[in-house]
Amino acid sequence: MPIIYLVIPCYNEEKVLPETAKRLTKKLASMRSAGLADEKSRILFVDDGSRDSTWSLIEQFSKGSSCICGIKLAHNRGHQNALLAGLMTARKYADCIISMDADLQDDVEVLDEFVKKYLDGCDIVYGVRNKRDTDTAFKRKTALAFYRLMEKLGVETVYNHADYRLMSRRALDALSSYHEVNLFLRGLVPLIGFRSGCVYYDRHERFAGESKYPLKKMISFAIDGITSFSVKPLGLIFLLGSVISFVSLVGVIWSAIAHCAGGSAAWIIGVWSIWLLGGLLMLCLGVVGVYVGKIYAETKARPRYLIEKTVTPPSGK
Questions:
Q1: Per residue in 47-65, pLDDT tens?
Q2: In the predicted model, what is the mean pLDDT of the chain?
Q3: Residue 251 sits in which domain range?
Q4: How confident is the model at residue 260 (pLDDT cuts 50, 70, 90)?
Q5: Where are the alpha helices (DSSP H) in 34-164?
Q6: Judging by beta carbons within 10 Å of its beta carbon (0-12, 13-18, 19+), is residue 86 exposed, middle or buried?
């Protein structure tokens, strides 16, 4: 039987955490009874610098259950870094690790299917949503647009997959060799290339609390994903510059002809052209700036996370 660790990143999840711990503890016990999980299997909560009582609850749960442990990051580092911290901590002790969010939107009842896929030889198993009925129409459309855009830009992703996935120790060892500071795990994991499979499930409504991904963060996350895996936006800037240069040349010739013919509105077109070119120039500089900023962050090579505290070490001591 494999040793399984469930890695749960948490940020201000005091409202949902008691129910999450209860359901996962019960599910892990049933997996042990079914011969799908070793007795050394654990639930690892990762507190991403929460400002509420999340860490206190994790400490409390670890005292009441031998299967719950936790790590606390010294500072809020974002969902992806918190998830990576959990993965890298648990890989020393587990045969495979399943990551999921703390809000109980991911269906815990399909955990058995993840393990069965792993036992069949898959190093990576993706949890894929059957549908997006729990999302608003706006979120469904923007999510579809994002996945299509990523595909057009040549980025390999799994449609309707977030961070509900199983990874074997071998896959996690491979992931540890990627040292990007700008993390986008949904794009990194498919690059590993080991045998993979999918488990399909219905996503639930959030059990309690508020979403940690409002529109602003979703846009930022999408931009990070695109600019971390594709340089095609820079190529599009070159193409845009070439087209504008050609159009501008045509406009100059047209303006000269109109002036010679006694036209009086050519200067208006010239003014609007300046505004248009100025706006496009600022847009292009902004795109280039995003890439330069990422290079700047990568060259500093600051640690992606620092662990401040641990409770019930994964070794079970």
A1: 999 999 999 999 999 988 8
A2: 83
A3: 232-300
A4: confident
A5: 54-64, 79-90, 111-119, 137-152
A6: buried
Angstrom distances, CA of residue 273 to CA of 241, 242, 298: 14, 15, 38
141, 241: one domain: no
Q: How far is CA 257 from CA 200, 253, 288, in A?
A: 64, 6, 36
Q: Do 26 and 100 sit in the same domain of this protein?
A: yes
- Is there a single domain that holds both residue 53 and residue 78? yes
58 and 201 fall within a common domain: yes
* Distance linking the first and last C-alpha atoms of the chain: 21
Give the pLDDT score at 133.
Answer: 66
In this prediction, residue 265 has a pLDDT band, given cuts at 50, 70 and 90, of low
Instruction: Domain count for the chain, please give it.
Output: 2
Find the mean pLDDT for residues 274-286: 73
22 and 155 housed in the same domain: yes
| Structural domain includes residue 317 | no
